[in-house]
Amino acid sequence: MSAPADRPAAPPQRSYATDEELLARVLAPYKEHCAYLRSAEVTASGGLSAARCAFAIPESCYIDDTGHLNAVEVNIAYNQMMYYLVAKSVKEGLLTGFEDWTLDDFWRHQLPDILIARFAANFRRPVDPRRFTGEMEFRAVTRRTSGAIGPFLHAPTVFRYQDAHGGRCDGEVTLAFVNIP
Predict the structure, then answer these.
(1) Structure pTM?
(2) How far apart are CA 143 and CA 155, in angstroms?
(3) Which of 23, 68, 95, 98 has its CA 20 to 30 A from that of 178?
């Protein structure tokens, strides 16, 4: 079935299963007991990408067991999900603003040049950290210039975590990719 003449057809959505080799490389900077991301399916359409992920945190890396996902773990899980999504998007040419990036560019910029400019999380119901899922998506990517940092990519994102028991946490994160190639 085709779209009505007055409305363009939606761009086709592409989907990519977990790239185990890429995932291992993305998680390499993390201490073994802090590698929470287990799998990630990436989808892309219209120059934007998203990920659906599975996580497991058998034991907190810094505090006794709280019995629920806490703010520090939310941030670490977000970083891992985001790094994987950007790496896969670069590898497959999925994300606007990253058309000229190579994986070598990503590895060089992964830790020093991908900044969280704003992070907001809403804890709706406690999430079981031992097994939960997460989703994130890029809402836009725009090139900007700042006198202090020069050209950079500005990217608003959204995320959500949930578990099998109705636990839920969601939020918004604004990223800045600085020192861009």
Answers:
(1) 0.92
(2) 9
(3) 23
Q: What is the pLDDT of residue 11?
A: 64
Per-residue burial over 87-102, b if 16 or more Cβ lie within 10 Å, else e, is bbbbbeebbbbbeebe
Distances (CA, A) of 78 to 2, 152, 155, 158: 37, 21, 14, 10
Burial class of residue 131 in the structure, from the number of CB atoms within 10 Å of its CB (0-12 exposed, 13-18 middle, 19+ buried): middle
- Kindly provide the residue ranges of all beta strands, DSSP E only, lying in 6-88, ordered along the sequence: 14-16, 37-45, 48-55
Whether residue 42 contacts residue 64, with contact meaning beta carbons closer than 8 Å, is answered with: no
- Is residue 125 within 8 A of residue 167, CB to CB? The reply is yes
pLDDT digits over 60-72, tens only? 888 777 788 999 9
Other CB atoms within 10 Å distance of the CB of residue 166: 10
Q: CB neighbours of 100 closer than 8 A, spacing ≥ 6?
A: 181
- And the tokens for 5? 């003449």
Q: How many residues does the chain have?
A: 181
Is residue 4 scored above 60 in pLDDT?
no
